[in-house]
Amino acid sequence: MSLTFVDLFAGAGGASTGLISAGLKPIGAIEIDDWASDTYERNHPNVKLVRGDISKISDTILSNFKGADVIVGGPPCQGFSIAASNRRNENDPRNKLYLEYVRAVELIKPKFFIVENVKEIVKFKLKEGGLLLDDFKSKLEAIGYNVSFSFLNSKDFGVPQDRKRFFMIGSLNHKIDFSLLNSFKKPELSLWDAISDLPTPITKVDTVPYDKKTVNEYQINSRNGSDMVYNHEPMRHTARVIERFKLIPINGNTQSVPEEFRNRKRGEVNELSAKVYHQNHRRLNPDVPCKTITASFYSSFVHPFQHRNITVREAARVQGFPDSFTFLGKRTTLSKKLLEKKGIFEDIHLDQFNQVGNAVSPPVAEAIGRYLKTLKNI
Question: 171-204 pLDDT, tens per residue?
Fold first, then answer.
C-alpha cells in the first residue's frame, strides 16, 4: 500500500506534485486562496480540495482525513518578526496558523508530518518573548512525535535554484535523520540547464509551441506529458525600461546602469528616485543556479540574454514544476495594499507569480517522500 497524504496550506500544489512523484497518494488538501485553489484543482483533479481558512474548518471536517499517513504543509508566518515585538502585527491572523497545523496533526494522527517554511522561522518570536519554533516543536512532541528539523537547499536535489528552506519532519515510530536524504541528492544544475530549450515568449500570447530541442535530462523530464509551453507570456515593458535592461550586465541590477537610465521620481521625469530597490531587475547568471524565487519575484529577475523579466513558465522550470503543470488566476496583480485602496477586492488573490514563488519545490518534496517510504518499511 502507498503512503497517503493530506496537503495543508496547499497553495498551487508544489508539495503535492513532489509527493505524488515519489509514489505517495493524495487523499485531500486545504487552501484558502481561490486562484491557487483553481490551479491545484486543475492539476490534481482527483484530489478532494477543501477551500477555506483552516482556522474556520471544524474538527469534524479535519477528522475526515483521519488515517492519512502523512500531513504536509507550511503554515504562513508573515505576522511574526525576528526583531522586537513592536515590529510585529499582533492582530495578524497568520500568527496562530502554526497552532492550526498542530490541531490537524492531533486530529488526524498521521505516521509522519512535514513542515516547510522560510529559514527565518527559527528566529520568529512569540508575543510572550519565546521562540515560535520552540513552541511549535514542543506541542508536536507532546502529541507523541519524534521531531527533527534542518535546512535543505533545492539546488542539492536537482532543482536549478539556490533556495534554502526550513524543513521539520516528525514521526510517531522513527527517529528522523536528515543525513539520510543525501542519498536522494542530484548534481547541481544551472539556470541555463533549466530554460535554454524554451521558446522566446510572444507578447499577448500565453501558450506557445516548443521550437528548440532538449539538451539534457532535466529538460526532457520537464516536457514529459506536455505538448505546449503554458504560462509563458512576457511582461510588457516600456521602451525606456527595455533600454535600461540592455545596459544591465550579468549579476548587475538597475544601479549598474548609467544615471540617465535609472528610475525617476514619480511625476518628476528629470529627478532621480530616492528609492533604491537592489533586489529588482537583477540580470541572472545563466551558468549557476538561479537566485531564490520569492512570492513577489515578477520584477526581480531579468533574463540572462533577453531584455525582459522572466516569465511564469521560466520560474516554474526553476522551481522544478513540469511543463504540464498550468497556473490559473491572473498572471500578476497590483499589491494587496494598492488593490484595497482602489477597491479592487476581486483581485486580492495569489497571482501566478505568487503561486510559483510560494510553492515547495516539487523535487525536494519528492526526495522527502522517498525517504519516508524507506522508513515505512523498517
Answer: 999 999 999 999 999 999 999 999 999 999 999 9
What pTM value is reported for the model? 0.91
Catalytic residues: 77
Strand 301-302 relative to strand 264-265, pairing: unpaired
**The amino acid at 268:** E
Rounded CA separation 161/138 (Å):
32
25: Cβ–Cβ under 8 A, 6 or more apart, which residues?
2, 3, 4, 5
d(CA 307, CA 296): 19
Could you please report the per-residue DSSP string of 208-252?
B---S---SHHHHHHHTT-SSB-S-PPPP--HHHHHHHHTPPTT-
pLDDT tens digits for range 22-43: 999 999 999 999 999 999 999 9
For the segment(s) 4-188+361-376, the CATH number from 3.40.50.1010, 3.40.640.10, 1.10.260.40, 3.40.50.150 is 3.40.50.150
The dotted CATH code for 191-358 is 3.90.120.10
